[in-house]
Amino acid sequence: MNKLITISSALLAATAIKAQSPNVIFILADDLGYGDISAFNPESKIHTPNIDNLTHSGISFTDAHSSSALSTPSRYSIITGRYPWRTTMKSGVLNGFSPAMITPDRRTIAQMFSENGYSTACIGKWHLGWDWAYIQNSQRKQKDVDFSQPIKNGPTERGFDYFYGIPASLGTAPHVYIENNKVTALPNRTIGPQKGIKLIRNGVAGADFEPQDCLPNIIRHSVDYINKQRNSQKPFFLYLPITAPHTPVLPAEKYKGQTIIGDYGDFVVMIDDMVQQIVETLKKNNQLENTIIIFTSDNGCAPYIGVKEMEEKGILCYGPYAADGFMGSGNYTHFDGILAMYHDQGLAPFKALAMEDGVNYTAGLPVVRTSPAHGTAYDIAGKGLACEDSFRQAIYVAIDVFRNRQREKVARANPLRKQ
User: Fold this and answer.
1) Residues 6+ apart with CB under 8 A from 194
2) For the chain, which terminus, N or C, has the lower number of CB atoms within 10 Å?
3) Cβ contacts of residue 382 below 8 Å, gap of 6+?
4) CA 159 to mean position of chain CA atoms
């Protein structure tokens, strides 16, 4: 069963659920290629057994589109359900000092979950701007940022109850962690610059910040958050935008040498192990049976990770797994997605969310609808849906699929009961 969702390449895994609404974990990889996942590329030189397990256990979406080929605008669409070009930013990305892109009146996916009784968290790369404090009477330039003061208009003011992460991409200054609205350690030095796949831009760094430790810290905080929700009466939504495999490509020592591709392939293996850590934590806490896991990439693999060098080693970086082809100096803009679900239970009713852009999947399967401003809707028999939208559509799809499966299960159990 296929249907288009507007996540770059999406992987959804859901388990049999209890009476309460399911937990939702949304893992967003940064510039991960479709062909890097071994379940979808038999010729892949990277083995990803844990991500593969999600695909083997569920449903795959094999036609999905990103709203942009860059981090900031694609994340904006995921969080708001709105095309990024409707904002004042028409090209490029924000930097680590940019002001908030999401305006206070713009409703977010986190707010939608909160309104439905969820605890919400964002752990990882934000890259949607927030407002730094500045030294009084200064020129309000980057050198004038007062890191001792709270940020404003960040994730915790856009619907998330908890935030831990970094302002933008891992190689982008300032190199600091933020927890909720405060820097975890004041800058005490400058790091960078480095070039190539180890790219780090010159800038101030917090006393607790080492680039190679960033992804492990994100994983550790994610596991800690899941553990803290173990006995909660509320379901949780964890938005987990990891920093990998975007530059700087920094696989931990234990993963080095695990692929013939080199550091990039080893970094993807590290991501796959992160997925295992999340799943094992859920299993240990008896949370897996009531959790939807979504794994996706924001836009896909980019040439800066050493495509030329890999080809010189005889590794094919073009062809059917290169997400509709190589786009020169930019990223790929179209991705065949993957969506997987565990088991066949139903979801509790989920309050619909009106969106400026996109498709309404809340009416139930097999009928889907699209607004006149977008593409044509097809039935779900493998034809997909020709339009763009946001991550929240994956949630709606999951709800509809599970509701129908739940009805089917009830019907099988009670063959004489009138539906």
Assistant:
1) 171, 200, 248
2) C
3) 1, 2
4) 16
Model pLDDT for residues 15-32, shown as the tens digit of each residue: 433 446 899 999 999 999
* C-beta separation of 33 from 297 below 8 A: yes
CA nearest to 273, candidates 342, 209, 220: 220
Amino acid occupying residue 343: H
Question: Residue 242 phi/psi, 5° resolution?
Answer: -75, 165
CA angle 152, 73, 215 (to 5 degrees): 70
Question: How many Å apart are CA 201 and CA 314, to the nearest integer?
Answer: 31
pLDDT, tens digit, 9 for 90 and up, residues 263-282: 999 999 999 999 999 999 99
CA–CA separation, 67 and 81 (whole Å): 10
In the Cβ-directed half-sphere of 56, how many Cα atoms lie within 13 Å? 9
**Does residue 280 sit in helix, strand or coil?**
helix
User: What integer pLDDT is reported at residue 289 of this predicted model?
Assistant: 87
- Say whether pTM exceeds 0.70: yes
Q: Annotate 337-399 with three-state secondary structure.
A: CCCCCCCCCCCCCCCCCCCCCCEECCCCCCCCEECCCCCCECCCECCCECCCCCCHHHHHHHH
**For residues 104, 106, 108 and 110, what is the CA-based torsion angle, rounded to 10 degrees?**
20
Q: Helix %, strand %, coil % for the chain, to 5?
A: 30, 20, 55
DSSP state of 173: S
Measuring CA to CA, which residue among 401, 385, 353 is closest to residue 65? 385
Supply 275's token pair: 């997925």
Amino acid (1-letter code) at residue 68: S
Q: How many CA atoms lie within 13 A of 41 on its CB side?
A: 23
Nearest to 109 by CA among 93, 101, 120, 98: 120
Q: Write phi, then psi, for 7 (nearest 5 degrees).
A: -120, 145
What tokens were used for 263? Answer: 């550091």
**What count of other Cβ atoms lies within 10 Å of the Cβ of residue 73?**
27
DSSP 3-state of 83: coil
DSSP notation for 226-278: HHHTTT-SS-EEEEEEEEEESSS----GGGTTSSSS-HHHHHHHHHHHHHHHH
* DSSP code of residue 198: G
Nearest-angstrom CA–CA distance, 149 and 310: 45
**Contact in structure between 107 and 353 (CB atoms under 8 Å):** yes
Nearest to 255 by CA among 46, 54, 36: 46
